[in-house]
Specification:
This protein is an alpha/beta fold and 245 residues long. It is built from 5 helices and 15 strands. The strands form 3 sheets. A 7-stranded mixed sheet has the order 10-9-8-7-11-12-15, with helices on both faces. The protein has a 6-stranded antiparallel β-barrel with strand order 1-2-5-4-3-6. The longest helix is centred in the middle third of the chain and has 10 residues. It is globular, with a radius of gyration of 17 Å. The two termini are 30 Å apart.
């Protein structure tokens, strides 16, 4: 963990209540699946935000405006400085044997940490599919960004307004792709269904309310097959077989 000052380069809405923020700062030790914890003036607790991309001195964050803290973030402008706890969490494990067929499954804002992961897996020579899951077509974001990585993009909407109708499990039932491994992030019901209804091995990134964000307060502890673990410290990424639903 590092406490650093980042500079906002841009901050814009890219879908209803979903924002993309570019920061200038040190990305040298960041890897896919980690998060940052941002101090908000006037609020006691920081806001944990997944790292979407990190390259050169540019960090990309995607966040959803759902409460007071993220509402305040949505009003931030280029040139503003942020107090950031950097390099938090364990991130995804990507040491797979060569040429695997990988599924990335993201639900809503849970799509964010999968973008840098997709870049890394593609560069390592894997065949990567990403299933972007939303409630309806008007909520879709980052489809073109993933397509520009030259990976295979699938859209899943609960109401069927675009792509496969239903949820991630319906998508898996509708395709005959022999996936070797999956990575997922999104709402807890989505992750539970994916883990319980498929025999594909994989990893999930959990979303949780956090106090400190770096393992001191124990507020985000969950029970796993290896005892209690902290989402912010031993996670947010866990192997499928570790989780108790």
């Amino acid at each position: 963990m590092k406490q650093e000052t980042f500079l906002i380069k841009s901050n814009k809405e890219i879908a209803p209540h979903v924002y993309e923020m570019h920061l200038e700062g040190d990305t040298s030790s960041l890897h896919a699946g980690q998060f940052v914890n941002i101090a908000i003036d006037g609020l006691y607790l920081r806001r944990p935000i997944s790292v979407c991309d990190a390259e050169g001195n540019d960090v990309t964050l995607l966040y959803k405006e759902i409460g007071k803290g993220t509402h305040m973030m949505s009003k931030m402008e280029a040139g503003q400085q942020l107090d950031v706890l950097n390099e938090l969490g364990n991130g995804f494990q990507t040491h797979l044997s060569p040429q695997k067929t990988i599924l990335l499954a993201g639900g809503g804002i849970g799509i964010a940490p999968l973008y840098l992961l997709a870049k890394n897996l593609k560069a390592a020579g894997h065949k990567v599919h990403v299933a972007l899951c939303f409630n309806k077509a008007s909520e879709i974001f980052y489809q073109e960004a993933f397509e520009q990585l030259d990976i295979i993009v699938h859209i899943v909407t609960a109401d069927g307004s675009k792509g496969c109708k239903g949820f991630i499990t319906h998508f898996l039932q509708s395709v005959s792709i022999p996936f070797d491994y999956f990575y997922a992030c999104g709402p807890m019901p989505m992750l539970k269904a994916l883990c319980q209804e498929t025999d594909i091995p994989g990893e999930v990134s959990l979303e949780a309310r956090m106090g400190c964000g770096f393992g001191i307060c124990m507020g985000c502890s969950i029970r796993t097959t290896h005892g209690y673990k902290r989402v912010c410290k031993e996670g947010p990424v866990f192997k499928k077989e570790e989780l108790i639903w």
